[in-house]
Every structure is written in structure tokens, then in C-alpha cells.
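Attaching the record inline, Q. Sequence:
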Amino acid sequence: MGIREDLIMIKKIKEFPKPEVQWEHYVSYGETDAMQIVYYGNYFHWFEQARSHFLRVVGISYSELENRGVFLPVIEAYSKYLAPARYEEKISVRTGICEWKRASLTFYYEVYNRSNNDQLINLGFTKHPCINSKGKIVPIPTWLKEMIQKNR
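Structure, as predicted:
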């Protein structure tokens, strides 16, 4: 998917997908650059933490997924920066699944600066194929989809 298609996907999100989960975090000094603004790469790390939190909230940890032979590697990641976050500000990452396919899913993220009037500062997504322990693409297990969707 090219940048134009990525932007189209973001613009298509009219209503936040359900279930949705919020992950909150205070920006640490180590996440900032010399100007005490969050280094851009940290947003992807926040997406990962928010995604793991999402799974725990809906009923399964990522390590339990792996124990069951299900892996969700990232094959594509997109982040649109709207405003900065700074050292010691409280941020919140809103997470949901915006696209389900037979053997993949896409997580969608909105990052808000809770220390600055809940300003929306970032939009993003990550795409994940479902693979088994041998690296072969497999359908998303019915039990996983049902577990997530029962939390709507």
C-alpha cells in the first residue's frame, strides 16, 4: 500500500472501531529528543504497547497467543503526526481493529495529549497477517475473533 492509500484508509475511519481500548502513558525523558519533543519512532513503540494492552483487556495476552501457535507480526505501519508531545506530558493511545480479513487484521490508533486539552496528536495503523509457528499464513482463528468481538 502506498502513502496515498494509507491516507485514504485513515480518512475512511468515520467511527472508531469497537471494541476500543485506551492505554495511558507519561512521556519519559528518554523518549524525547534534544528539544524534549517525543522522537517520532516512539509512536510505533506506543502502538505496540497499546496493541498488547488491547489484547489483554479483551481477554488474552500476546504471549498466550504465541503459546497457542498464533503470531501477528507487523507487515506495515503508518503514522501521521499532527502535533508534538513533550517530556512529562500524559498521552493516551486509543486502539481498535479497523479491518478484518480472512488471514489478517489492521489495528487503528489515535494518540491524544491528555496534558494539552486532549489534543489529537497522531493517527496510525499497523497491519498484521496471522501466521503459525512455521511462518505460514493461516486464517485468523475463530476463537480469537469471537473473543475480541464479544467485547463490543
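Helices lie at 3-12, 42-58, 62-67, 142-149. The mean pLDDT is 92.

More tomorrow.
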